[in-house]
Amino acid sequence: MDQAQSLREYMHRFNVQQEQKVELPEKHAKHSAQVITITSGKGGVGKSNFTLNFALGLNAAGKKIIVLDLDLSTANINILMGITARNSLADVLLRQKSIWDVLEKGTAGIDYISGGLDIQDLMELDPNTLSFFWSQIQELQTYADFILLDTGAGISKEIIDFILASDETILVTTPEPTAIADSYAVLKTVLQFSKQIPKVRLVVNRAQSYREAVDTSRAIKNASNSFLKFKLVTLGFLMEDVHVRQSVRSQMPFFISYPNCEATKNIRQIVYSFLPDSNELPTNETKGVRSFFEKIFSFRK
Question: Are 58 and 217 in contact (CB under 8 A)?
């Protein structure tokens, strides 16, 4: 029996045990956190900065947020907040720390977890370590409303797995031709591996004008619809704003440091557009964090 099969059988037994536990009455039942992957076709489009300020916007709207930094090559969510991550998700595995030990408070009270591990690391765990890790991940299931995964850029197997396992994906691009082409390539690759239509919404960042943002969105949507038969939905636009660069230098998110700037207004509009769909009562279609990791393991055959 291979390692992946062994892990999948373990998870099945774990889930059966969880289902046998006494559940709360429906009116007292807690919802599952929705897992949102935020990715891009190429680096340098402002994905991590968007993730952080989007999290702050959701937090301001009364939502409990966890940002999980899975961009292992250039993890910089903590840098954008001006904090140093003391622990990471890897410490749950290597030192058997609890999930609460690695959950850190960031700007404006949002919760943040540094990744610090590759998904392949999970596949090499012994059953006892995996059992502990799985029990800790369970703790997040009803703790937050949204878990935002800030992934690396590009088209790796890991990123595709994240997208397919998430409740929703936000694809960040800019008006640059290379960014547009790479965003289309991400969609094309995801659809090649997906057995069902994924939920993906587009954000155009650093547009010089509203017209440029609309044209960028239209170009990707038309190509997606014509060649991939996939209807891409636009979530929103962020205009080029000098305050964004200033906030990066000061290591204080623009949503906090410049509450009235154009970029912050854009984030508020994106949050407003995002929440009507996501604010509904959870359904059986909501995967949650437990289902997210179940799917990640199942992909590793």
Answer: no
**Mind giving me the DSSP string for 233-266?**
EEEEEEE--HHHHHHHHHTS-HHHH-TTSHHHHH
d(CA 103, CA 7): 25
CA distance 17 to 10: 11
Taking each helix axis as running N to C, give the angle between helix 157-165 and helix 177-193, from 0 to 180 degrees, rounded to the nearest 10.
Answer: 70
Select from 286, 285, 202 the least CA-distant residue to 34. 286
Rounded Cα distance between 154 and 159, Å, is 8
Could you tell me the strand order of the sheet in which 34-40 lies? 104-105, 111-114, 65-69, 146-150, 34-40, 168-173, 200-207, 233-239
**CB contact set of 101 (below 8 Å; sequence gap of 6+):** 87, 91, 92
Comparing CA positions, the residue from 296, 264, 299 lying closest to residue 68 is 296
Is the separation of the CB atoms in 135 and 99 below 8 Å?
Answer: no
Give the DSSP letter of residue 82. T
Least Cα distance to 200 among 212, 178, 183, 216 occurs for 183
Bridge pairing between strands 111-114 and 233-239: unpaired
* Beta-ladder partners of 201: 170, 233
Query: Hunting for tokens 């850029």 — which residue is that?
Result: 153
Q: Could you read off the pLDDT tens digit of each residue along the chain, which spans 301 residues? A: 454 555 455 455 545 554 444 343 343 345 788 999 999 999 999 999 999 999 999 999 999 999 998 876 566 798 899 888 888 888 887 777 899 999 999 999 899 998 876 656 666 667 777 778 778 888 888 899 999 999 888 888 878 888 888 999 999 999 999 999 999 999 999 999 888 889 999 999 999 999 999 999 999 999 999 999 999 999 999 999 999 999 999 999 999 999 999 999 999 999 999 997 554 444 445 567 767 766 766 665 5
